[in-house]
Amino acid sequence: MTAIDPIFFLYGAVFLMVLLMVEGAWFLLQDLRGQTGQSRVNRRLRMLAAGTEAREVMRTLRRKPAAKGGLEALLREVTPLGALDRLIQGAGWSVPTNRMAAAMALAAIAAFLGMYYGVRVDMARALLFALTPLVAPPLILAMAARRRLRGFARQLPEAIEMVVRSLRAGHPVATAIAMVAREMPDPIGSEFGLAYDEMTYGLDLREALDNLALRVPVDELRFLVVAVRIQFGTGGNLAEVLSGLSRVIRDRERMHGRIKALSAEGKLSAMILVALPFVVVGAVAVFSPGYYLAVKDDPLFLPLIGSGLGSMVLGAFMMNRMVRFRV
Predict the structure, then answer these.
(1) CB atoms near residue 21 (< 10 Å)
(2) CATH label of the domain that carries residue 209
(3) DSSP 70
(4) Which has the least CB within 10 A, 61, 147, 239, 255?
């Protein structure tokens, strides 16, 4: 077994450093926005206050894809552009997908040229380093999208209660949705505002809520959409139904919190037990490369390694099932 070149550890450290720096800058920006009080004004209202037309705001926030059958739609289906567009939309960013993809490609090319011609490393290492601008942005977008979905789920009970108060005051559903769009911060403020804009420009309530559920894949929001669709078709006291739905969502949130607290120790133990053998093997390979060379020709070496890995996979699967609860 050949020794691992320490330069690979340097590349890994650089990759993690860049990833953590970008993530830290993003969350720092969010914190600063919250401290200045701007987070209470959602993005849709800021765009409208800046003088942008309502139709242009809707087009920007909705990120409507190309018509079915078009060349752009076909390219999005057969290339990673579609997945990148969904990540950008889920994260709540307004940057165009083509611009993001072009920036990632140019950064990857610049990283490759800088490492290959500037640092004078071999092509394999330069290509490995060039993967950083291609991998880091989707990871950051995925983390931002998950954070945004969790924020939406936390805001949803308050938004439903606001809708209930508006309905009990005698307002129609569209006006109640517009009130949520005006009064609540992102992410729920802009998403409800986008649903209201879609109703303003021709969609009915059911279609606008269906589009909202597609943009924000949160289970609790689907409950709201189903309740409104049932009331729209059969009638009934929508305010009472939504009031009960708000209580159910809050109870589910409390239950999820209790489950998360009770299973936190088991999850941490599982992660440590799974990662510890790899950490030990990596440390031994770095500090004592010849440790395994004495037994690598033994006929039992590979079978024992395979059985150990298989046992680890089985143990990780069992621990994962033990600490996962579905509510």
Answers:
(1) 11
(2) 1.20.81
(3) S
(4) 255
Q: Where are the alpha helices (DSSP H) in 186-300?
A: 188-200, 205-215, 219-234, 238-287
- Are 179 and 169 a contacting pair, CB within 8 Å? no
Among 150, 169, 199, the domain boundary falls at 150
pTM of the model: 0.72
Asked if residue 224 lies in contact with residue 160, where contact means CB atoms within 8 angstroms, the answer is yes
Q: What whole-number distance in Å separates Cα of residue 262 and Cα of residue 291?
A: 41
Whether the ω angle into residue 299 lies within 30 degrees of 0, i.e. cis, is no
Q: With contact defined as beta carbons under 8 Å apart, do 23 and 143 qualify?
A: yes
Mean pLDDT estimate for the chain: 82
Contact 206, 227 (CB under 8 A): no
Structure token pair of residue 60: 């920007």
Taking only the tens place, the pLDDT of each residue in 208-257 is 999 999 899 998 899 899 988 888 778 778 899 999 999 999 998 888 88
- Tally of domains within the chain: 3
Length of the chain: 327
CA distance 114 to 129: 10
CA distance 307 to 294: 20
205-215 and 188-200 are packed helices; what angle lies between their axes, rounded to 10 degrees?
Answer: 150
* The predicted structure's pLDDT at residue 247: 92
Q: Is residue 190 a contact partner of residue 61, using CB atoms and an 8 Å limit?
A: yes
